[in-house]
Amino acid sequence: MNRIRISPSLLAADFTCLDRELARMERAGADMLHLDVMDGVFVPNISFGLPVIASIRRATSLPFDLHLMIADPLRYVPAFAEAGADMITFHLESNSDPAETIAAIHAAGRQAGLSVRPGTPVEALFPFLDTLDLALIMSVEPGFGGQSFLSDTPDRIRALRGRAPGLPINVDGGINAKTAALCRDAGADILVSGSFLFGAEDAAAAVASLRQPIPR
Ligand code: DX5
Ligand code: ZN
Fold first, then answer.
1. Spatial contact of 186 and 4, defined as CB atoms under 8 Å apart
2. Residue 215 belongs to some domain of the structure
3. Distance, CA of 139 to CA of 50 (rounded, Å)
4. Is the pTM of this model over 0.85?
5. Which ligand is nearest to the CA of 117?
6. First to last CA, the chain
7. Within a domain: residue 205?
8. Which residues surround ligand 2, an ion (CB under 5 A)?
């Protein structure tokens, strides 16, 4: 089994002190940083964009796991690559052509990820699996942090895992120590967590609890 990688979602950070928040997650053992970009069109919320990402790129060496919840990801791939994204994940339900967008991400020298909303069958990812570096399964409706994990997610992870034994599977939304175990059992590799990790008093213990069951 692969080592589980942890990707804290910056959306839940204290935005008045991002450098401290980044250092806290780095010290806690995070493997990368999840950056949720929302355009108010693809999802009914607006988060942060290029200038913020370019600035925090200078504040940490953690890889950037970008999650684009925007209507036209293809148009912005070069700009986000330039801003410092290492992995660029976009949505199958966006307006951009998936194959073209994956090719553009690779042309920019970055890893390509494709995501599906909870209502989209994971089978819709199957035609693209050979060209992807990761797949992201949403375990909440995209748009907001702090929502509850959707209970059919482990079955969706299993269905994708069965078809793509070697592909890193990223799960995003409502991840805490309990739901993380369900995702690990189902075959997930990367766990995104916002409110659980940034809200934790002991971030290192919270990161560890996502990786493995708490010993009794
Ligand atoms: C939701 C985002 C998630 C979110 C996760 O649209 O894609 O990354 O920030 O936050 P929590 O862990 O609080 O559900
Ligand atoms: Zn996300």
1. no
2. no
3. 26
4. yes
5. 1
6. 22
7. yes
8. 36, 67, 172
Q: Which of 31, 39, 65, 172 is an active site residue? A: 172
Asked if the structure places residue 17 within a domain, the reply is yes
Reading the block at residue 209, the tokens are: 């609890």
Residue 216 lies inside a defined structural domain of this protein: no
Tell me how many domains the chain contains.
1
CA dihedral of residues 57, 173, 183, 186 (deg, nearest 10): -110
Confirm if 144 and 124 have CB atoms less than 8 A apart: no
Spell out the SS3 assignment of 171-202.
EECCCCHHHHHHHHHHCCCEEEECHHHHCCCC
Range of the domain at 57: 5-209
Which atom of ligand 1 has the smallest separation from the CA of 43? 6
* pLDDT one digit per residue (tens) for the chain, 216 residues: 569 999 999 999 999 999 999 999 999 999 999 999 999 999 999 999 999 999 999 999 999 999 999 999 999 999 999 999 999 999 999 999 999 999 999 999 999 999 999 999 999 999 999 999 999 999 999 999 999 999 999 999 999 999 999 999 999 999 999 999 999 999 999 999 999 999 999 999 999 999 986 555
Ligand 1 pocket test: pick from 192, 196, 210 the residue with the most ligand atoms within 8 Å of its Cβ: 192
Q: Cα of 194 to ligand 1 centre, how many Å?
A: 6
Where residue 43 sits, what CATH number does that domain have?
3.20.20.70
